[in-house]
Amino acid sequence: QVQLVESGGGLVQAGGSLRLSCAASGRTFSSYTMGWFRQAPGKEREFVARISWTGAGTYYANSVKGRFSISRDNAKNTVFLQMNSLKPEDTAVYYCAAASTARFDYWGQGTQVTVSS
Q: Across-strand partners of 19?
């Protein structure tokens, strides 16, 4: 079992930056693939980024590639999402997720990111 708590969301102007954090409980955090997803109003939840359990492998949605960066600190049971050059279309609730197999089984409660134009 893994419990996830996101933080770091807020209101930012277009072109600005935010850093999201996801704190995980559980002693097996380092064995999970971690991911970030987002859901905008009226839209389905979409994949943003994921990182392998070692941190060596990362993968991004095309919409955020080159602007967002995912990283993790297994010693602190935390995964991060650095978001730069934010756009109004990045506005969404951002969720942290953990996968022990091929699917993401554990989810946080989400943190709101609002980008004003």
A: 82
- Rounded mean pLDDT, 76-88: 97
Query: Residue 78 — left, alpha, or beta (φ > 0 → left; ψ -120 to 50 → alpha)?
Result: beta
Confidence of residue 55 (pLDDT cuts 50, 70, 90): confident
Closest-CA residue to 78 (of 1, 22, 3): 22
φ, ψ for residue 31, nearest 5 deg? -95, -5
Concatenating the DSSP letter of every residue in 37-55 gives EEE-TTS--EEEEEE-TTS
Instruction: Note whether 76 and 48 are within 8 A (CB).
Output: no
Tell me what pLDDT residue 91 has: 98
